[in-house]
Model the fold of this input.
Amino acid sequence: MNSKDISNLRIHYEKSGLSEASAPASPLDLFHSWFAGALQGGIREPNAMVLSTVSENRPHARVVLLKGASEEGFEFYTNYNSHKGAQLATNPYAALTFFYDLLERQIRVEGVIRKLSADRSDAYFHSRPRGSQIGAWVSHQSEKISSQQALEEKQKFYEEKFKDLEVIPRPDHWGGYLLVPESVEFWQGRPNRLHDRLLYTREGDSWGISRLSP
Ligand SMILES: Cc1cc2nc3c(=O)[nH]c(=O)nc-3n(C[C@H](O)[C@H](O)[C@H](O)COP(=O)(O)O)c2cc1C
Done:
């Protein structure tokens, strides 16, 4: 197929279904079940998710890696001074989108973001490979830079600076966020575009479940 024939690309979704009867009470349980399915089903980075944020009246989206999911929320790590960090400081509402191509599934999470504690960010920072820890010092994420070479020189500078340290300190500008979900939607592709969509919305301490039209 010619790459110009984009309009003819079409897949018939028929792998699975999603029923209210089989839906667990908490969206986190269904998330973990779909995540395990994605791992088993050959999705290479099932923890890659699109993080959408809003600054003033414009949306912004980019991929980040999920590093934990529990009843508390969805956890990821980044540079607090990056564009996303600045956007979250002015507007803490954000959305996450997972797409599992081979399983014909999408998960959408919406909610409010808060910073993780310094202790928790320290623990994750120190679990990362040493090169990534140095990278967090080197990169002023989202700032314009003169060249890749300038970045490599900075990398050498920090490698030298930390060469005698067993534990590299976490820079203040780097750490974790937790997205506390207010709603989670599970989408399962179905024949004839009549897909299954189950929306969980927070109702006090529990969750309500609604079916949405595809
Ligand atoms: C697969 C993948 C995983 C990524 N994981 C992260 C991540 O966990 N944290 C992060 O800050 N950026 C991650 N990025 C880079 C972001 O997409 C983005 O370029 C960066 O965070 C700057 O975004 P911002 O300018 O909107 O702040 C990842 C990119 C890809 C493609």
